[in-house]
Amino acid sequence: MMFTTAARWPAVFLLLSALCTLFVPAVTVKHENFKTCDQSGFCKRNRQFADDAAASSWTSPYALDPATITFKNGQLSGTVFKTLKEGEAQVRLPLTVTFLESGVARVTLDEERRLKGDVDLRHGSQARKERYNEAGKWALVGGLKVADGAALSEKAEAGYTKVFYGDAGKHQAVIRHAPFGIEFQRDGETQIKFNDRGLLNMEHWRQKVEPPPKEEEKKEGDEENKDEEKTEEKVEEKKDEGPKGEDESTWWEETFGGNTDSKPRGPEAAALDISFPGYEHVFGIPEHATRLSLKTTRGGDGNYKEPYRLYNADVFEYEMDSPMTLYGAIPFMQAHRKGSTVGVFWLNAAETWVDVVKSKTTANPLALGLKGHTDIQTHWISESGLLDVFVFLGPTPQDLTRQYGELTGYTAMPQSFAIAYHQCRWNYVTDEDVKDVDRKFDKFNIPYDVIWLDIEYTHEKKYFTWDPLTFVNPTKMHKHLDKRERKLVAIIDPHIKNTNDYPVIDELKKKGLAVKNKDGGDYEGWCWPGSSMWIDCFNPAAITWWKGLFKYDSFKGTAPNTFIWNDMNEPSVFNGPETTMPKDNLHHDNWEHRDVHNINGMTFHNATYEAMLERKKGEIRRPFVLTRAFYSGSQRVGAMWTGDNLAEWSHLEASIPMVLNQGISGFPFSGADVGGFFGNPSKELLTRWYQTGIFYPFFRGHAHIDTRRREPYIAGSPYTEIITQALRLRYQLLPAWYTAFHEAATIGAPIIRPNFYIHPEDEKGFAVDDQLYVGSTGLLAKPVTKEGAESVSVYIADDQPYYNYFDYTVYQGAGQHTVPAPLDTIPLLMQGGHVIPRRDRPRRSSGLMKFDPFTLVVVLDKDGNAAGTLYVDDGETFDYQQGAYIHRRFSFDGKRNALTSTNLHPRATVKTDAYLKTMAKVRVEKVIVVGAPKAWKGKSQVVVSEEGAKESARKRQVGFEYYESSGKKAAWAVVRDPKVAIGKGWKIDFS
């Protein structure tokens, strides 16, 4: 959500907004509000460092002293020395390389002098002296068990140390001593190189030479004298000598947009080049409005000139096809080629820039057998903190998402309502407005589960309050929604209004729980309420206090069907540098904001999640908390969305690769504002966006306060009917979606998946990012994202038959296939070989579907086989963690002509038995077999057998219908009401 004119803003805030030129929507992003690499001192220095290295016979000044190397319990330690100018002492950099049981390696490089606190800070700063070393505390939750089998190579080689690790020692780290570098190999082939181009650069601490004191002392606080001192400091800066190629002008302070960063610790960037030899595609490092396969950032036709930036920011009307930073940061990159997927996780929470360069080598016709290849060279640059990198050697995409998930956590299993449809806008203006919208959804028979409230529900932008004039009876409103199992989500942001007669700000100040400015006082900035302060959720005491605010007797008017939306948590500060906090602000334990910026939003999100767990003693329900800002690990506690998009076709198109990228980067519970946040979509665009949005894991319609109302029933015929059919398709397939969420929550798999993830050997499809697969269902969707389109071209990567979801038209053969897509049609195919679970009875909300029967769609592959899974739990509590769930595998064996249901539950518990009793009457009401064999023609019955049934009913005959193929449409068959329980084992024999 971004800002514009709204009711009851303080006059001074309107003035400030006008001065900042931010309160009136513009055509596109205001680039002048955000830094380029050249305007970010540490990025410019390190990019120049790379240019200088490439233009000369460069030798990296970093060397690992072999005399310092030790290896014990799966961890190699040593000291890397950075050589400075002649006559200067070398800089000591402690190195650790840890080999994990999962086959992942972790490399950390610190700075001994800062580590020991043997440095002086300028300006009397209270900041910590160490490099920030607590990112793992927030991002990592497991996967850190050290490998017992990792071992040094018995064969000594001069200048190198080798370590074998991974499954059966198939992985090898070849550590070069001088210049220091590491090659990571799998089965003897190099996959990843560190410092191959010599761009490692740990900016070490150095003393700032201050000007000598004046004979006459200046009075403290004299602004004129301060200006003179700054001028003298700048003169002294020119005298400082740094390594060749470094720009010294931003070592000690940096100014942008009228804000000056004091930099009390001086320059401290950490940078490294990481190469992927033989790879042509890299993915990941969200969030950016880019294609899935990342572009080169060093110019050239169709490429970028700027590096990809990771610096969580409130970006107003972001532009398409840009490496510019957005709201979240996940520094996880994977490289893919036929037969191999590898990756790196750059564990650093500071502002980070990443250059990507593709180096192509053509085949030499004189060198027989040698083919041309592509190497991808990346350059990672962070402003501060440790150099801390995890290395994944795959070899499959599934290996990477699983191992990354083991480290940072898997997606939280949401309540079932959370994966249904959410209706939102800025703002529903009264409690009666909310109820009216709810009634109209029912009137038009449109399903939805959640209605949302933006900031206007509060009293004068004070969170945990209700406007007494517009939300007169929130309790009655909640009860109204609850009658149809619907929920309400209310926004709560991290900025707390700094005003009188507001207990929340009074307690924040009294308890000392706000973020501090560089001098140690409470930081004050501007956001929605005007003057505001920010809760510091790095502080455990702040989290404890925050949790108390959400209890029902504190946040009066809320109910068990109230859930929360965390926005503006980058943090967004309207009058701050780059619309965020000054980097020299101080957080808990005196870490500077520069060190923790990208983690800030996650700490707030975590705190709200914990608060939702403790609203009432004994009432434990899975929270739902949406976040805009995020970091690695945010997936553990909720969902995200892609922020303030526009009602334009280009934004609809971009949403697909953006959400796909979130999925492969470990945060799959994601979506984009359906319809576009800014602007008024045409009815065609709105309709196509709903047809696309049903394939977002997080599915919400949202709109800006200045837009026209656009609830689905407003569009009118035929658009309302078409949108309604799209929504019903989402609801029909909720069992398949919920099963996909279970996979994400247990093995880290994306919920929607790109072509390369499903078909990792298909080189032609590696960059395909305008279509998607839903979980492991075989459902292949190609949303329409072009105005006026009547068809789409769907890329098929294999030779399996693909069937149109609605009429069973067959498409087969690798390559592009034209699929009709008039406005009332969603291009959706079913890959042969899958069993797709769904619920076909239309309901007003997902909660009303809880005990509905299931339909199984059996989609036969070219060999006549199919398989699929179904996961079901109560969709609300954490009882599933104690075994209260159903997990079944459905398999159709073409040779035996039988469909069977088998149990995937590892072991039954008391909770399992109790849950099965509640689901005892839930049955399979229909089985549809697509691609049914001709041999079934003429059959009228099948034989059904079920475990636990009475002897007389153990085997029984059930009616069967066969429909012949017609033209390009496949034959299909239906078994109606086989009367088998969804939670039991059974077999349907078609012989």
UniProtKB/TrEMBL annotation:
Keywords in alphabetical order: Endoplasmic reticulum, Glycoprotein, Glycosidase, Hydrolase, Signal
Region (Disordered): 203-269
Biological process according to GO: carbohydrate metabolic process; N-glycan processing
Annotated Gene Ontology cellular component terms: glucosidase II complex
Broadest EC class assigned to this enzyme: hydrolase
Basic and acidic residues: bias regions: 203-247
EC number: 3.2.1.20
Spans through the membrane: none
Signal peptide (residue range): 1-26
Domain Glycoside hydrolase family 31 N-terminal: 94-355
Family: Belongs to the glycosyl hydrolase 31 family.
Entries under PANTHER family matching the protein: ALPHA-GLUCOSIDASE, BCDNA.GH04962
Protein name: alpha-glucosidase
Species whose genome carries this gene: Massariosphaeria phaeospora
Lineage: Eukaryota, Fungi, Dikarya, Ascomycota, Pezizomycotina
